[in-house]
Amino acid sequence: MGEDHAIYLLEFELPHLPVIxxxxxxxxxxxxxxxxxxxxxxxxxxxxxxxxxxGHRAICLEKALHSHIKTHRPDLIVPxxxxxxxxxxxxxxxxxxxxxxxxxxxxAVVAGWDPSTPAQAA
Length: 122
What we know:
The protein is of the alpha+beta class. The chain has one domain (about 1-120). The chain has 5 helices and 4 strands; from the N terminus they run ββααβαβαα. Strands 3-1-2-4 form a 4-stranded antiparallel beta sheet, sandwiched between helices. Strand 1 (about 5-15) and strand 2 (about 20-25) form a beta hairpin.
């Protein structure tokens, strides 16, 4: 059942700014298509998807990852006014140069790091 829930990393080519989106979904490919206002412009792709045991676990991981990024790398956060005309979401969009940092966080989650546990998140 863990295959039904995933943390994903998507990539989009906005006309003025390449970005990535970190989130959770039972279907990352569908979610990628869903948030694009005009796919011919944004050219979205799924970069990565890691399974979570349950939907609740995926939500907890996603929220903790966003919190971790906001605390440790706020410079990666793209302000909504820079993407909202192209991507139908209000947050969770990061600069593409943060891809290796966010991928490393996902690697750590796969290896057992739990960003939602205060002792491990510190």
